[in-house]
Design goal:
The protein is an alpha+beta fold and about 110 residues long. It is built from three helices and five strands, in the order H-E-H-E-E-H-E-E.
């Protein structure tokens, strides 16, 4: 289920909490890049600690929104698990299926 614009706003609030508490170098752009427009090489090796979107929707929502991190702390994983329910979408908090050196955190 895609994220509506309202869900994206909620996701951004959670990303800001994660930045403050766990990932101080997390970059949260005003408008994320659309990974769906990237070459396969870029998709397999996305920039880390930057919020990315996938599949921008006409209502300014996204098919998914997330960030990638190498070796996330257990505190970050748990912190996300505690906060993820603030966004009414399915969540990601797992190894990235295109690159097992990275972890993906976000929603789809």
């Amino acid at each position: 289920m895609a994220l509506s614009f309202t869900s994206v706003e909620k996701a951004y609030k959670v990303f800001h909490i994660l930045k403050t508490e766990y990932v101080q170098d997390l970059r949260i752009p005003t408008w994320p890049e659309d990974m769906g427009e990237w070459e396969i090489e870029e998709q397999e090796n996305p920039k880390q600690n930057v919020v990315h979107g996938w599949g921008k929707k006409s209502d300014d929502g996204w098919e998914s929104i997330s960030f990638f991190i190498e070796n996330p702390s257990e505190e970050l994983k748990k912190g996300f698990e505690d906060l993820k329910k603030q966004v009414p979408n399915s969540s990601l908090n797992e190894p990235y299926h295109k690159n097992d050196k990275l972890w993906v955190i976000g929603w789809f």
